[in-house]
């Protein structure tokens, strides 16, 4: 396993999952999927900042803080269409700090991290820090529509 990669399966309950998905779907409304992202790595997606005071978000924040993350930015919801994908990349150190954590929703996906592949199930949280954050590209190959919520800390906590 790559140093700095952690996976927490069943980070949220099915009921919490359904509430979060419904709230994100409401926020997207009828917004269309976009073909290309400005950063060139995400295809067929919609994204939005998503701030909410759900107890499961507080648990995630506490967990990330216990792992040494700095102050969290507003989470991002990313909705990949069934034909969407995320190409290999390392998150820019200009926009995110030492911790990138992703809550997977709706459908499972394959996370490619450097030389390894891992199936990420809905309701699980994967966390990238250290080598996993800075030294290996990650990519996502979804299996059907996939939503994710991305928690990043602020740049001040960069290593
Ligand atoms: O949705 C994911 O699992 C990854 C998101 C991602 O790679 C990113 O936003 O940089």
Automatic annotation (TrEMBL):
BP GO terms, sorted: DNA damage response; fatty acid metabolic process
GO CC term (a single one): mitochondrial matrix
InterPro entries hit by this protein: AlkB-like_sf (IPR037151), ALKBH7-like (IPR032870)
Domain of life: Eukaryota
Protein name: Uncharacterized protein
């Amino acid at each position: 396993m790559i140093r700095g990669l952690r996976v927490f399966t069943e980070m949220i309950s099915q009921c919490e999952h359904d509430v979060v998905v419904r709230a994100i779907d409401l926020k997207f409304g009828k917004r269309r999927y976009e073909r290309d992202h400005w950063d060139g790595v995400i295809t067929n997606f919609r994204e939005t900042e998503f701030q909410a005071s759900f107890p499961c978000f507080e648990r995630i924040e506490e967990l990330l803080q216990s792992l040494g993350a700095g102050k969290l930015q507003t989470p991002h919801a990313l909705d990949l269409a069934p034909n969407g994908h995320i190409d290999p990349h390392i998150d820019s150190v200009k926009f995110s700090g030492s911790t990138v954590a992703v809550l997977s929703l709706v459908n499972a996906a394959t996370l490619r991290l450097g030389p390894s592949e891992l199936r990420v199930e809905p309701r699980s949280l994967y966390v990238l820090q250290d080598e996993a954050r800075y030294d290996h590209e990650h990519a996502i190959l979804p299996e059907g529509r996939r939503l994710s919520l991305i928690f990043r800390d602020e740049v001040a906590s960069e290593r």
